[in-house]
Write a structure and sequence with these properties.
mainly beta, 27 strands, 364 residues, 5-stranded mixed beta sheet, 5-stranded antiparallel beta sheet, Immunoglobulin-like
Length: 364
């Protein structure tokens, strides 16, 4: 009244309830039921005067009487054995000389929102994405852009959950992609001790991250080669926990031009199960485990075959030690040998529709 400014209202002291979340504390102290304190101007920075009560879940709460007006304080552990450290400029802090503390303007009783230790906000929810490996691995070698672009890459894909649940932009993940050559598709011979490539902590900020292009122009990618690959993901864009590796899958490279990294399908080429193939009737397959224990071995076919197959196992001396003639259900043939094979080298001939594919394996 009779003034040009707001009245200067007196402030009241208050009982202030403070809470701190210690679940993400990574300091040297062991935080127990009687470890967390609040100290400040209100108690002359006493180290053991105001212990907070453990709520049983890693959070601590207590109520203290603060004088009216501006109050500096901070949370500390075990009578100043460790305390909060701020750089200054945070929205909840005030720097006085060389000290940066929390600050609160008191005008009566108040309950302050819980904060994370050394933070002005609540603790972020812990990332659980790294608890399990990516699933649903698959690949694509379609033109980019589809359908009239260049065929210049194997697009590997993975998912958070089935069916096809993507790692979203909000998940903020990074990914490791590892691949290595395992078979020359021209000679159909295994590649042993091939160099492994690791694409480390790849990210796509603000985008879903569930696929990555492995371009043919890369120096570690060769035409007509089968590669084995796997992935794992990180929380917090590569700064958080990492998941286990996924299961391993294959991708085949077509007969692309090494100079350009572009594949031009010839007449008769077909896009089957994520790979380009020139069909000649032959069945491509992998063997595992290799070496075998001599009792069983599994053939994993690249595609479902129509009609019966004739599968013969020969020893190094040419003796036929096992034979199967009949249909194949699905993409897997589990072979139980008639008797345990002796240690040594063996060959498998797989015939279908007049074409024969050969492979070898070792028994140890």
């Amino acid at each position: 009244f009779q003034a040009c400014v707001t009245c200067d209202l007196a402030q009241d002291p208050g009982n202030i309830t403070l809470s701190v979340d210690m679940n993400q504390y990574e300091g040297p102290e062991i935080v127990g039921d009687s470890s967390v304190f609040v100290s400040g101007q209100f108690n002359s920075w006493c180290g053991d005067c105001n212990m907070l009560t453990h709520n049983g879940d890693g959070t601590y709460t207590g109520t203290v009487l603060m004088p009216a007006g501006q109050n500096e304080y901070k949370f500390q552990i075990n009578n100043w054995a460790d305390d909060e450290s701020f750089v200054g400029g945070e929205e909840c802090t005030l720097t006085t000389g060389e000290f940066t503390n929390r600050v609160l303007d008191v005008n009566g009783d108040a309950i302050v929102d819980m904060v994370c230790f050394e933070s002005c906000t609540a603790c972020a929810a812990p990332c659980t994405l790294a608890d399990s490996a990516p699933v649903g691995l698959t690949k694509s070698q379609q033109p980019v852009p589809f359908p009239d672009g260049d065929i210049d890459r194997a697009q590997v894909k993975w998912y958070k959950d089935t069916p096809d649940v993507k790692y979203s932009a909000d998940d903020n993940t990074a990914v490791d992609i590892e691949f290595w050559p395992i078979r020359d598709l021209v000679t159909n011979t295994p590649i042993t001790n091939g160099d492994t490539t690791l694409l480390s902590k790849r990210t796509k900020p603000n985008k879903d991250l569930f696929k990555w292009p492995v371009k043919y122009i890369r120096p570690d990618i060769n035409p007509n080669t089968r590669y084995r690959w796997r992935v794992r993901i990180y929380c917090d864009a590569g700064n958080g926990p990492v998941s286990p590796w996924s299961v391993e899958k294959n991708f085949n490279t077509p007969d692309f031009d090494p100079a350009t990294g572009i594949y031009t399908p010839p007449p008769g080429a077909q896009y089957i199960n994520g790979d380009w193939k020139v069909l000649d009737g032959a069945i491509e397959f992998d063997l595992f485990p290799n070496p075998s224990d001599g009792n069983t071995i599994t053939l994993t076919l690249d595609e479902v075959t129509e009609g019966p197959v004739d599968m013969i196992v020969y020893s190094l001396s040419g003796e036929m030690v096992h034979r199967y003639t009949g249909p194949v259900k699905g993409l897997t043939m589990n072979i139980d040998f008639d008797k345990t094979l002796a240690a040594g080298m063996y060959f498998i001939n797989l015939e279908s529709q007049g074409s024969v594919t050969n492979a070898r394996f070792v028994v140890r």
